[in-house]
Amino acid sequence: MHKTANSICFLTYNYRKMQSQDMQNAVERLMLKNRRFFDSYTYTVPSSEHYPFQWLWDSCFHAIILSHIDTTLAREEIRSLLARPLANGLVPHIIYWKKGYETLKWGREYEGDVLTKAWGTDGVSSITQPPLIASALWELHTRAPDIGFLHELYPRIRDHYLCLLTERNFSAHGLMGIINPDESGEDNSPRFDSLQGLPSRHSPKQNLHRRIDRVREHAKCGFDVQNCTRLHFWIEDVSFNAISLRALEALSLIANEIGEKQDSDVFSLCAQQIRTSMQLYMKSGYRYYSLQGETQERIIVDTWGLFMPLYAGLLHKEEATLLVERHLLNSKQFFTNFPIPSVSCTEKSFTGDDLWRGPTWIAINWFVYKGLKLYGFNDVAETIRQKTIRLLTQSGFREYYDAHTGEGHGAHNFTWGGLVLDMN
Ligand code: GLC
Where are the domains of the chain? Predict the structure, then answer.
């Protein structure tokens, strides 16, 4: 009897090992296929056909994935991401490196000059994306310490966060604002509908055009966020601030590691300030709400951002339990066959196949997995990991997936699936 149980355990162990080795190999092949070279830089494109440039938060995901495969490549990914900052120090959301937008279907939808001239000020975009850089760098450093590399990159990373902390802290209580939906990384999320005057049901094209309007306004304003752009679009987003908070904590550790003690204290205080302000201005009961416009009106739409306070450790354990039990594990809202949908199934805006309006993205699962682990919800985290593996095995490396059927949509050979290597 004892022997049988032992051999079953052994077989299961071996099967899991084989399964994870297959996944590791598949991710390695994908990351290699999507690797690009320019002058002395190398970077990874999210998808060769659909997204042939370098994107900010994508590159942070790539560095984290590569830290499980080849730490030298992971360092190169971050180095290239920091190579083309804007004049104010901000890291742009896209670096084009090579031309290629003319051939893109969605590039043409930008109607001529916008992609190249407004988003692309001299080869880069004029807006940013969730500031995950310090978190990715710190994770890489803990896996493969390299003090020299931290020294090399520190000035640029510091400038990026200093710019956010000054230019984007308009209300002066520490919360960071975004000036375009694309800065959230969730381009067409229904969280941004109301401020853009869009109904809960509208076409992807309509949505894109509104976002392009934001880009045009930004360009017309001479890219002046403080005095102009923010008057057109200003959101203090829970996810963006949760990511910033964690990143500033990581930046404080990086600064400390290279002997910049004063900076370390400052960044730690800034993280604390965001934490306090999120609790003060965004929290109601166990939930956090993003705020929009001058009046900081609450945005009442249930998206996966509901779970980002877990990632940032912003809840007490009892509050976290309520959040997980009432919402994450609720099959009417987020616990679909292939969780976690980007929008609750109960929302009017929910769809199966339109980007951030319902489909499941692997990065969502990764963020929520990290939050669940932080709070010790290990079984739920393991369920999310298993379901993520099932999704990838069934539908391959796609940009996003129908949360009910698991069908893959959007770009093929999309890199974010590799984050499954970091769900451990
Ligand atoms: C889409 C996603 C965005 C991502 C980009 C490149 O625009 O919404 O988050 O950075 O593609 O993958």
Answer: 333-424
User: Which residue blocks in 34-177 are alpha helix, DSSP H?
Assistant: 56-66, 71-81, 105-108, 113, 133-143, 147-167
Q: Whose CA is nearest to atom 12 of ligand 1?
A: 46
Atom nearest to 47 CA in ligand 1: 12
Among the atoms of ligand 1, which is closest to the Cα of residue 416? 12
Residue nearest to atom 11 of ligand 1 (CA): 51
**Which residue is associated with the tokens 């994306």?**
129
Task: Kindly write down the DSSP assignment for every residue of 232-269, as one continuous string.
Answer: H--EE-HHHHHHHHHHHHHHHHHHHHTT-HHHHHHHHH
What is the reported pTM? Answer: 0.94
Q: Does the beta carbon of 120 lie inside 6 Å of ligand 1?
A: no
Residue 109 confidence (pLDDT): 54
Give the single-character DSSP code of 379: H
153: exposed, middle or buried (Cβ count in 10 Å: 0-12, 13-18, 19+): buried
Average pLDDT over residues 44-58: 93
194, pLDDT greater than 80: yes
Q: Would you say the CB of residue 187 lies under 6 angstroms from ligand 1?
A: yes
- Indicate whether residue 185 lines ligand 1 (CB < 6 A): yes
51 in contact with ligand 1, CB cutoff 6 A: yes
Distance of CA 151 to the CA centre of its chain: 25
- Report which of 318, 239, 222, 231 is spatially closest to residue 274, judged by C-alpha positions: 239
pLDDT score recorded for residue 97 = 86
